Each structure stands twice: as C-alpha cells, then as structure tokens.
Amino acid sequence: MEREGYFLDTKHVKVMAENRKARHNFFIDDEYEAGMVLKGTEVKSIRGGRVNIKDAYAKIKDGEIFLYQMHIGEYPFAHYDNHDTLRVRKLLLHQREIRKLYAKANEKGYALIPLSVYFKNGKAKVLIGLARGKKAFDKRESIKQREAKRDLDRVKKKY
After folding, report:
1. pLDDT digits (tens, 9 = 90+) for 67-117
2. Predicted confidence (pLDDT) per residue in 38-58, tens digit
3. Does 26 fall in a domain?
4. How far apart are CA 95 and CA 71, in angstroms?
5. Is 142 domain-assigned?
6. How far apart (Å, rounded) are the C-alpha atoms in residues 25 and 115?
7. Cα separation, 81 vs 33, whole angstroms
8. Which residues contact 77 (CB under 8 A, 6 or more apart)?
9. Which of 10, 56, 154, 157 has its CA 20 to 30 A from that of 64?
10. CATH code of the domain containing 130
C-alpha cells in the first residue's frame, strides 16, 4: 500500500480504522508513523474493530504528543477493569520528529490528524498526517480531477 511518500508493508500490516474524510477535508503535507501507549482491553477492542478516528486529532504538549477524541469501544469481556472510551492516549515518536512536528504544527492553518490505525508486526500504530485545511473551492477542484481521472480510465479500459 503506497501512500504519498510513506510506505506500508502490506504483508505485515492489518488496517483497523481509516479516516477517509481526512484526505477530502485536508491537504496532507507529511505523514508519520507513531506507536500508541494502550491498555490491554484497548488493544483487544482495536483488534475487534471497535475503533473510530473520525473526530480525532493530536496535540503536542510538554515535548510529548497526545491523541484526543479517538474512540475505542469497551471490550465486552472485561467485566471490571475496562478502559475509558475517549481517554487521551500518548503517542510514541522520536524527539527529533516531535520537534519537527511542533515547529510545523504551530504555523497557522496546520493540524495533526490521524489517518489510519493499524497493526504492524503485532504492534498498534497510528499514521499521523500534518494537514492543512481545504477551502470549498479546493474540494471542488479535487472532485473535478478525480472524475476526470475516472473518465480517462474508462476510455483506456475500452480500448
């Protein structure tokens, strides 16, 4: 699975959740793979597909990066020690990557958006994108380009 500048080895990657609207609403300038600090019940819920990153975003606070509003549903078989579904989760990145993100994310118009949650070699990972918001005319332009590409592919397939 080749993504704009970032390579995911499909043989060892199982995507659990994807934020498809992010690529429609934002220009993704850069992508970073980060580990997540999770509880055991959260990992089991993610493996069961009970994760939603539609409204999630990341912030850098005190030299660490945290993920907010990522919903991981409760694990149904944990009776008493279950996790909070919307708790703030710490992300694991190298310090140089955090410093680089901090410098760019503080510019006006930039945000840190999770693009997908997946398991890579048994470890839960999140793909974070450094994103700039699109205006309405930008969205219309990308829709036009997508439809033109689709029409061109139809014509190529015909001949």
Report:
1. 999 999 998 888 788 888 899 999 999 999 999 999 888 888 889 999 999
2. 998 999 999 999 999 999 999
3. yes
4. 26
5. no
6. 12
7. 29
8. 44
9. 10
10. 2.40.280.10
